[in-house]
Amino acid sequence: MTKVLNEVLHANGDYVNDFDKGDLPMPPGRQFAILTCMDARLDPAKYAGLSEGDAHVIRNAGGRASDDAIRSLVISYKLLGTREWFVIHHTDCGMETFNNEIMGELLSSSLKTASVDASGWHDCCEGGGTTNGKFIEWLTISDQEKSVLSDVERIRKNSMVPADIPIYGYIYDVKTGSLIEVPSATEAGKAS
Ligand SMILES: [Zn+2]
User: Fold this and answer.
1) Measured in angstroms, how far is the CA atom of residue 63 from the centroid of ligand 1?
2) If you measure from the C-alpha of residue 148 to the centroid of ligand 1, how many angstroms do you get, rounded to a whole number?
3) H helices of 51-143, where?
4) How many helices (H) and strands (E) does the chain have?
5) Per residue in 113-171, pLDDT tens?
6) Ligand 1 centre from 41 Cα, in Å?
7) What is the pTM of this model?
8) pLDDT tens digits, 41-82
9) Cα-to-centroid distance, 25 and ligand 1 (Å)
């Protein structure tokens, strides 16, 4: 058993010992959803004050409004009753450090984990790569405020999204833990 696997199962054992959430209903009790980045420094349960059963948290690289994120949001309201949504990107996001071309080249070189320094990303090894990564839209970010705005707009304009669901746009500051509103995004996402 790897160290991580052992740690996770041990932690789960502790969780089970104190577990008293077995009777929660499936629909989120506080009727909202958060779309945010998978970055390990972000803990939505802590930064937004969530307990089990409170809200849907949809995470991907960047917290982007991908087709799959929208799929989850539509299920979130249509079947499970959420009425307010947040799009939360964050400072120092890894999605700002590369673009489609760079990712395609790194994967073409090898499948090993790349490294990054002041001059950018570097692959450690040659061989065993694939060109498949050149055909993927990686949804990278060049400006956090713009990415929040464009994702809120993309969700707002989707024909499956009801006009009466407000969509709030925020940036989480990894240095302070605070949520900073992107007013243009919240304006674009306002309910009507
Ligand atoms: Zn991120």
Assistant:
1) 7
2) 12
3) 67-78, 100-109
4) 6, 7
5) 999 999 999 998 888 999 999 999 999 999 999 999 999 999 999 999 999 999 999 99
6) 9
7) 0.95
8) 999 999 999 999 999 999 999 999 999 999 999 999 999 999
9) 30
